[in-house]
Amino acid sequence: MNQPLATDSLTQSLTAVVDALHSPAFAAALVRLIQQQVAFDCALLLGVGQRPVYLHDNLSHQRALLFDRYLTSHFSQDPFMQALQDGLPAGVWTLAQVSKGRLDPEYRHHFYQATGWQEEVGLILPVRDGFTLMLFLGRLDKRQALRPDERARLEALFPLVHSLCRQQWREAVPLLAQNPARPDGADLKATVEQAIASVGGESLTRRERQVASLLLQGLDTEAIAVELGIGSGTVKNHRKHLYGKLRLGSRAELFNLFLNHLITTPLSPLPPEEPAP
């Protein structure tokens, strides 16, 4: 018989998740709720429309690979992403199920061997037409394969997690999650904005900083245009100008710049913004 979900600690965690709805703290609270049912070392939450959008992680090992490799190019080799494109339905899925034993050697090397992930489970959570959440749970010990009872607990919790995620991300623009690495609880959006303000100083306009922030979230030109209410050609011009001012040649270099900021710079108040042109 499966362990019942209704416990005092679970009730407290569930209350924390509900209290965090529609705030940047939601994703971290949700991960803690799931972790009470099944232990894991790593969690990564992405929103997937035309391409993956970063929302939350608690990675402590090789985190740079997420921004430097995965979100820029290697996501297309991810067996979970490929299965989603092929119509993978909502539910709890293991890597063995979606890869069917045919994992791309290059992806194995650049992701699983580089990060040390030995076990991976994906929660596929469609929240609205054209937008699906993918919550990846990883283990670093190859001896800790997912047991049937753990799988059963995840599946029992899945409807609740799915419902909460639909409430959190029902709007057109996904909410960035709180950054778990910041002890002061600063949310990632503020960290992104500070990084751009820090490296760009007064050289970047407010609109260029907005475009840079959305690029770091993984949005493409069309999605940024919709978010900011401007034309795609205008977005391309802003991107060209900010790359020139920061002496960057690609989005990957922008990710590297952001990661360097996260590693070396403490959080401080953002400078005041001038009105958008």
What does this structure look like?
It is a single chain. With 277 residues, the protein is α+β, with helices and mostly antiparallel strands. It has helices at 8-19, 26-37, 64-70, 79-85, 95-99, 105-115, 148-168, 188-200, 206-217, 221-228, 232-246, 251-264, and strands at 42-48, 52-57, 91-94, 119-128, 131-139. It has a five-stranded antiparallel beta sheet. A hairpin with a 2-residue loop joins strand 4 and strand 5. The N and C termini lie far apart (62 Å). Mean pLDDT is 80; it is low at 178-186 and 263-277.
DSSP helical segment count: 12
Structural class: alpha+beta
Q: How helical, in percent, are the residues? A: 40-55%
Q: What gap, in angstroms, lies between the N and C termini? A: 62 Å
How many beta-strand runs?
5
Question: What's the CATH topology name of the largest domain?
Answer: Beta-Lactamase
Oligomer: single chain
